[in-house]
Sequence to fold (406 residues):
Amino acid sequence: MKLTDLQRDMLEGRLGWPSQIAMRMLVAVGDAHDAEELIPVGSVHLGVSGMTMAEPGMRLLEKLAERGAKFVVPTTLNILSMERAAVGTVPAIRDREDVQLRIARACEAMGANPTYTCNPFLLGIQPARDESVAWNESATAPYINAMLGARTNREGATALASAVTGFTANYGMHVPRNRLGAALIEVTAPVSGSDDFSVLGGAVARACGTRIPVIEGFARPTLDEMTAFSAAFAAVSPLAMVHIVGVTPEAPTRAAAMAPGIAPDPVRIDAAALAAERARHVTAKDDAVDVIAIGCPHASFEQVQEVADAVEGRRIDGKVRFLVQVSRDCAGRAAQSGLAQRLAAAGVTLQADSCVHVAYDEIPAGRTLATNSLKIAYLTASHDVNVRFGTLHDCVRAGVAGRWTA
Ligand code: F3S
Fold:
């Protein structure tokens, strides 16, 4: 791999231990992917969940911070395994809170922006077209690549190395030829709203397999629709890229998006395919509902408002825990506008910083989760928790009734 003088100085330790180990990681990953060089990144989004990093991750971050590491590009932080405002209030997770808080403190000491959300797009953080970035939350990758025309792989620990050095290995979605499509998908069913786009994300992932899809059949999705699609697609698919013809900057036409020599042999997604995709995620055998989670990825202010409007004048059944997962920023806006108070009066909890999937405070085995997010439904199905998957309004009705009614 060709390295610049700066990169070589980092690799050989002349600029300190933090950038040396970070550079070693990037070079090893780059070599594994036959990357010829390291390229600059414009920003990093870092996974910091205590559930996944645990004590080994905490020790690495603290050692980096103690040895003077600083994040050299704008770095935002993904969700935590607990809500910061709830520290000390949940006895079952007290013994693990310290690990999560120390992870967060170490990242902030190195200069991270304490966003603690999987949906930083709602905070106005949007990489520029053709900009390479290193973002760690899988749900963000299709949005970055398809909607913004920026470039990211689905990063793991290498995102930390990129934050410390400002570089990433030039492979995968950073290389234009690797971004071309290989499967044509025609959506013939009308799709509208985040609930539909979440289901569509799963259906497209299943239809394209490991081939980057080129999708036709709908107009430009809203930010909420596309983040719902992106999260669902990345949950079911290993890919980081989709093309939406007429929307993705690299896909003004079908021909521009498809790799040369691929015969257009479209797979059609109709209303029946969407209904089948929705049904596939239901594992509950009865109508019991214990926890309801809206906001995967983290809900926008408008989506919070939609829940408040849907539940207006009614109250969530006392046996049901109804959560709307949001960033701290969104929770603050909801409190200022009176929305949070309306929701609290109806028995709905705004949960900031975290989500049911990575929270220390897990849903007990054998209980039933209801959600309007295909990603949460898909991931939860691998645990010993039953799943109900429906629309936001299905979930609100179930919350009020205390059982699934759709
Ligand atoms: Fe975000 Fe948790 Fe969903 S991290 S994308 S709310 S599974």
